[in-house]
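Reopening this ticket.

The earlier resolution said the output was attached, but the attachment link was broken on my side. Pasting everything inline this time so it's all in one place.
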Amino acid sequence: FFAIFFREPPKIQTKEKK
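Inline output:
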């Protein structure tokens, strides 16, 4: 699932990290 987050825009990655 991590690969999907990386593929998505950085916006989503930040949301997930938070």
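Reporter confirms the inline version is readable. The helical segments are 2-7, 10-17. The chain has a mean pLDDT of 60.
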